Structure formats: structure tokens, C-alpha cells
Amino acid sequence: MKHLATFVLPLFLIFSSCSEVFEYSPYDTDVKSLGLNLISAAKISQKPQSETDTLKIVVFSDTHENYDDLSDAIVSINALPDIDFALCLGDVTVFGYVHEFQWYIDVIEELRYPLLTIIGNHDYLANGFTVYKRLFGDPNMSVITGKYKFVLFDDVIWENNNRSPRYEWLRDELSDDSYHNIVAAHIPPFTGEIGDLHRMVYNQIVDSSSVIMAMYGQFHFYNLAPFNGIRNTLNVASIDKREYCLIELINDTAIVKRINF
Amino acid sequence: MIKLALAAMVFNMISVTAFSENTNDTINQANKVMYVKMQYAGNIGLVSFGAGYDFLKSRISIDLSYGNLPKYINGVRVNTIALKPAWHFKPFELRYFNTDLYLGSSINYSIGRNIYGKAPNYYPLDYVYPNAFSFNPLLGMRTRFKSKDYGLRKMSLYVEMGTVDLKVWYAFRTREVTLFEIWNLGIGLIIHIN
Fold first, then answer.
1. Of the candidates A244, A251, A252, A224, which has an alpha carbon nearest to the alpha carbon of residue A78?
2. pLDDT, position B15
């Protein structure tokens, strides 16, 4: 009986709790299509326009393998009143593995506000792009709520086999000046990962004439400074710094607060 | 349902093993035995094929396999080469079977989209770590028929409980991932050549 208890019971418990009994590869993409960003976008857009002269959103970024910090952040965000939605600025994995995405989703399921997740360069690795598209939807998308249009832009180049981002789509999305446009992407245009030519094209499209605020991840530290004429160009710290940003939008003004948890 | 059935199967197999008599060195008296194998799942593709040797009276084995995850399964194709050394630490003799438990690690090299052994040359130096290699610790059980029939006598079945290095790292690093949820199974057939 001693052998039985030593060998069998732990094995039985293990396989009762495993998510998948058979796995073919850590690079597999065995996930259902959930369209989480589309579901969140529908909730965000449903809010009546008269209520959205001002918006309060929470932004965090670069969660990577720091699920415990993310979990603590979710508890902190849930305690905030009247948040319209939350935005994650990408890099929710380290290696783009399907399990990393699943663990991220396990944590963010606890968030009581709608959440939009942008794709980051790490999320492209392995077959991460395929997994991301199934879980969240197209990485380029816009969400309109009241006077505001949030344009989520996939600006990853190197991990996307050196392909160009969809600048034409971005230009079209920002061409309508009846909204206060806000651009969110993972890689800031002022880094080396965006080459000179890409930077020139991006800066021509995303400038102060079309955009009131731009926000990025990737750098892992906080910064708020003007760039390319855009008064509020925000870099959000990685979640392991145990901070996120609370942004209040009032007409074309943005008030950014750093919140530590 | 399949999960419960497999858990019950593992439960049964290990139960029998735990109560059986230990008969060291009875499995194979030869020092070096070649085998070929076919495996389903276990982190090296949908199906993998390989060949290897048992050494030191079947206490040590090492094999090399090629596995493929075809695109029609989940929309991506992954090719994997796996080198799997193992230490067969607990041989048992059951009524109709020679069985052993083994510990090992599969060292995998995979080829697929955005899987790098060496980063593309447009990346700066040290920009990304190569992600094509993985180390997959495993615990397995192999059982060989004791039969007068020559064909059956040359066959073994095995089941392996394995994981991936990254999952182990996460299990120790974060409370969101537990050691209980990182394991999966591979099953296979071995044909002993000599």
C-alpha cells in the first residue's frame, strides 16, 4: 500500500488536473477562437454616447511571465470605481507559446472591466501570432466610444518576418477627424526597432493633427512626453514594476496618473 | 472523459507495477540492443519515428526521433528532432510482461515559423534568445511482452509523462502555474531489433 500511495495517487491527481492529456508540441496553437478583443470592443462601444464626454481607462503593459504581478494588478484595478475599460499594450508572453497566452487569459478573466489586448513583439514568436489572432482577433482594430476613437495598431516588424505594418489601414482609421483619436501600439516609433523609413511614414500618419494621445509599451518604464507634436505620448511601465496608468480623458485633454499596487 | 480514462489507465498500470516483484536485470541481458520506435504526442509532434539503443543491460537507453505536427491539426506545421536519453531505474517482472520505469529528458530541436536556432540576420545581436531548443523531462514506463511468439517478444509498449522546461520554470516562478498542471502524456511502440 505504501508503494501505491507513493506512485499512484500523485499521478492520478496530476492527470486529473492537467489541461490537456496529450500535447503535440509546445509550439502548437491548440486554442479555440475566442475573439476576446471583439467582445470587449462591443461592450465598450455599447456605452451611450452622452455618457462618454469623459473616459477613464486603465493601461498596463509588458506582462510577460509576471502572472503574479498581473494578478495583483487586476485586484487593484477591480477596486477602482467607474473605469470604462482597460488596455494592455502587448507582450503578454515571453516565447509566444500557447500556454503563456492561456495563463494570461486565466489571470485577466478576473478583471471586471472590458479589456483590450494589443499584440507585442514577443507575442509573435513561435506561432504566437496565430494564437493571438484566435484568442483576441485581428491585431489592427478600432473601438469608438462617444467622442473617442481608439486605434489599436500592430507595429511589430522584425518578428513579423520584417514585414511592413498596415500603414494604409492606420491612415484610413485616422482620417476621420470627427473623433478624438488615440493610438495604442506596442513598439514606440522612437526606438531602433522602427527603422528610419518606417518612422518617417508612421510620423506622417500619427501626428498632432490626427491624434490627441499615443501610448506604447516595450520600454518597460514609464515616460510621458511630447513626440511628433503629440502632447501626450505615453510609455507604460512593465507590470513587474508593479504599476499601471489611470488615464482620464476630458475632451481633448488627458490626465495620466501612475498607480502603484 | 478521455482524461479520466487515461488517468485510470495510468493508475492501473502503476498499481500493478508497485505490487509486483522486483527482478533486477531480468529484462535484457544483452549489453546493447537496437530498437526502432513510433510515438504519439509527448511534445515531439503528432507522431514521431526514431531509433535507438539500450545499453548496460537495458539500464540506459538513448534514441533519436523525428516528429511532425502537420498543418491540418491546428493550422501550423512544426518539425522536431528529439534526442532522448533515459535511465531505467526500476525493472519489474509481471506475469506476462517485463516492465521498467525510467527517467529521462528529451532534448528537442524544432523547426517552424518564428522558431529560431539562430536569430535572423536582421535582428541585432542578443536581441532574442534562440527558442528552437527545449528540454523535456519525463517519467516513463516500458513494458515488453513475455511471449513465445517471436513477433510479440520483440515489441514493447511505453507511456511517458513529460513536460517542457519552460513550464517547469513557470511552475516554480509563479503561483498562477502549479506543478500539477504542466504534465502531458506520450505513448509509443518499440520494436527491438536484436
1. A244
2. 44
Cα–Cα distance measured from residue B11 to residue B22, given in angstroms and rounded to the nearest whole number: 19
Least Cα separation, residue B98 to chain A (angstroms): 19
| pTM score | 0.87
Contact between B76 and A127 (Cβ < 8 Å):
yes
Domains of chain A as residue ranges with CATH: 26-260 (3.60.21.10)
B21–chain A Cβ distance below 8 A for any pair? no
B184 contact residues in A (CB cutoff 8 A):
18, 20-23
Interface confidence (ipTM) of the complex: 0.82
Q: Between chains, do A13 and B114 touch, taking CB under 8 Å as contact?
A: no
Confidence of residue A258 (pLDDT cuts 50, 70, 90): very high
DSSP of chain B, one letter per residue? -HHHHHHHHHHHHHHHHHHSEE-TT-S---SEEEEEEEEEESSS-SEEEEEEEEETTTTEEEEEEEEEE-HHHHS--EEEEEEEEEEEEEEEE-SSEEEEEEEEEEEEEEESTT--SS--TTSPTTSS---SEEEEEEEEEEEEE--SSHHHHTEEEEEEEE--HHHHHHHHH-TTS-GGGS-EEEEEEEEE--
Which candidate from B3, B14, B45 shows the least CB-CB separation from A21? B3
Q: A23 and B19: CB-CB below 8 Å?
A: no
A19 reaches B (C-beta below 8 A):
yes
